[in-house]
Amino acid sequence: MGSLGFWRLAQADPEWIAAVDPDGTEYTAGDLLARANRVVHGLRDLGLRNGDGFCGLVPNGVDGLVLYLAALQAGWYYTPINWHLTGPEIGYIVADSEAKAFFVHERYAEEGERGAEESGIEAHRRFAFGAVKGFRPFDELVGGQPDALPEDRSNGATMHYTSGTTGRPKGVRRKLAGIDPDDSAELMTFLLGMFGMTPGRPAGNEPQAHLVTSPNYHTAVTQFGGTALQMGHTLVYVDKWDAEETLRLIERYKITNTHMVPTHFKRLLGLPDEVRKRYDVSSMKWAIHAAAPCPVPIKQQMLDWWGDCIWEYYAATEGGGTIASPEDWRAHPGTVGKAWPISELLIVDDDGQPVPTGTPGTIYMKMAGTTFEYKGDKDKTEKNRLDDHFTVGDIGYLTEDGFLFLSDRKADMIISGGANIYPAEIENEITMHPKVADVAVFGIPDDEWGEQIKAVVEPAPGAEPGPELAAEILSSLEGRLAKMKWPRSIDFIETMPREPNGKLLKRKLRDPYWKDRESAI
């Protein structure tokens, strides 16, 4: 194979700036390589062998990146843990993943300590960045270790835990190929190659930089950032996302690519005109977004502002997906694209039978050459499969020429008076109202109709919540949305419960309305 892969690039040009922490500290590729090598030597001394794994509860930045690079060259699984979880939830993942080491940053000391106790992981396998009670300092693991490349290197992988709509999260585990880590990394770059992305430093190419906008415990964030690094792009980390700060970083580091969610677009577009005009964003070539359907007008406004660099895809931790170039999207507004060259789509009804073109059904996907299992849960792995396709429960339809349009998550669909209603469609219309900062639509119990439509709105700054605003929002739907899809009532909330990657925690909003019912639909 060729000349891509972080370890090859770092040896060829150790002085290249490979990562920038949120506080602005810059790290060379040579420095990152030496750190990752020491972690490998240290963990091998601790007894870790091929196929073992470890967990990290660390914020965005170089500490987590070093753990990731160590696992990827030593044949291990690395599980980054969501830092919003509580001790027992963290402990479940550490135990379930059979972690042979657990790294915690002092920022998350309290829940990290609880998680370690809950998991029962031995004290000598706990390591801290900073001070965490009952944890060994990270330096005890790496101090005195050589920074030379370890022997017997083979590819590792991340094992992310999917939040899952029901029950405990599950680790998505792929079989390791047992190949050279750089060759494996080069295969990974296929992902960014689909978007037409090109290598950066040090192979005599133009410098490129990738902005990490969301928490690194998300699969896509790790994949896109990790793969950009393997192509020689500089990773620039943010700690807490902020719209104006994003524009400042794009200009400061001449960011060429990033991975975003529609909520980021909405907040960027909400900045005053003079703020938007203050920054030069012309370096951006690939602003890739996913994770939620993007309302057509919002994407249109982003394309008008940033030009044809807004790419979209639809995929899952489990593998497979679609991609929409800016040109594709302009020709088919609202699409999430066509199947990847190595992926297939299948849309079926509730009996698992394929549906005609244009008819919504459950989306099944498959990706050539990859298999996965939910760790320790054969039943769940099988239940979500149809032959060799799998689903994450989304609903959508295909056009004649193979473009996929998403309707909604199956779990979020409202059945009112026997009709299927997709909240995403209603949310897309309401979110366009200038006095709406954020919105969620879901079904609540209705004795006559089964479910009625409820909207919860976070008002825009300066907008007064109350019956008048509710009436104004509803009347704006006139002529844009069939009356049967209008919310029967609108409640207001100060801040919408979203994960930092933009994913809405709809269950938090919906549960209170269903708590007195025997079964939540």
UniProtKB/TrEMBL annotation:
Q: Where is the composition biased (Polar residues)?
A: 155-166
InterPro entries, per the entry: AMP-bd_C (IPR025110), AMP-bd_C_sf (IPR045851), AMP-binding_CS (IPR020845), AMP-dep_synth/lig_dom (IPR000873), ANL_N_sf (IPR042099)
Which parts of this chain are annotated as the region Disordered? 145-171
Q: Which residues form the AMP-binding enzyme C-terminal domain?
A: 425-503
For this entry, list what GO says about its biological process. Answer: fatty acid metabolic process
Q: Name one GO molecular function term.
A: medium-chain fatty acid-CoA ligase activity
Domain (AMP-dependent synthetase/ligase): residue spans on this chain: 7-371
Q: Which UniProt keywords apply?
A: Ligase
Query: What Pfam family is a match, any one?
Result: AMP-binding_C
Q: Does the keyword Ligase apply?
A: yes
Q: Does the keyword Ligase apply?
A: yes
> Into which family does the record put it?
Belongs to the ATP-dependent AMP-binding enzyme family.
This protein is called Acyl-CoA synthetase
User: Can you name the source organism?
Assistant: Actinomadura rudentiformis
Query: What are the top taxonomic ranks of the organism?
Result: Bacteria, Bacillati, Actinomycetota, Actinomycetes, Streptosporangiales
